[in-house]
Amino acid sequence: MMGKSKNAQCNAKIEIKINLTTKDTKKKDKFVKDGLPAIIKINNDHNNNIRSAEALSFLKPSEECRTQFENYFNDGLGISESIKMHESKLELEYGINSNELANATINLKYKTIRHWYDVWKENNLGSSNDISVLQKLEEKKKYYEENGIIVRYSENPFAILVITSIMKRAHQLPFA
């Protein structure tokens, strides 16, 4: 038995006809004469469902979504935690069985989020080599100190020490 055909005989199409621009066509065709050598016809008459989960999965991610994920990363969430947080928000907003969960504009693929995280990480934390990490620490050291965080590091041997206000309080307890 053969598989089901994916050709839905959909009437939707885009036709693009580009006319050759010559002296003769400039004389005869008023559109070519006005600098418009192409004719584009759009037939948006679909006989198939264009709001299916599969169709929605091909949409491009929105900039708003990218900003939201960058905020997750700024808040200290990694890739998996960000995805779980975002999916939970979508489920609350649209319902757990909604088609919107398949919409790649708002519910992104792992590969996209991984790329965004890699770009965010490079911009905010530097690359993973020792020199870059120390450069980023030096850039952010003033900000950390303004917020009560002590940062010390050594290049050789490579070591980084970070002490937050919670850590300071914990060490002042009698049983510490």
Question: What this model shows, in words?
Answer:
It is a single chain. By secondary structure, the chain is an alpha+beta fold. The protein is built from 8 helices and 4 strands.
How would you describe the oligomerization state of the chains in this entry?
Answer: single chain
Order of helices and strands: EHHEHHHHHEEH
What's the number of helices? 8
The shape, in one word, is elongated
| Major beta sheet, strand line-up | 1-2
Going by helix content, strand content and strand pairing, the class is alpha+beta
Mean pLDDT: 84
Distance between the ends: 73 Å
Q: Which segments are poorly predicted (pLDDT under 50) over 5 or more consecutive residues?
A: none
Helical proportion?
40-55%
What profile does the largest beta sheet have? 2 strands, antiparallel
Instruction: Report the portion of residues in β strands.
Output: 5-15%
What's the count of strands?
4
CA radius of gyration: 28 Å
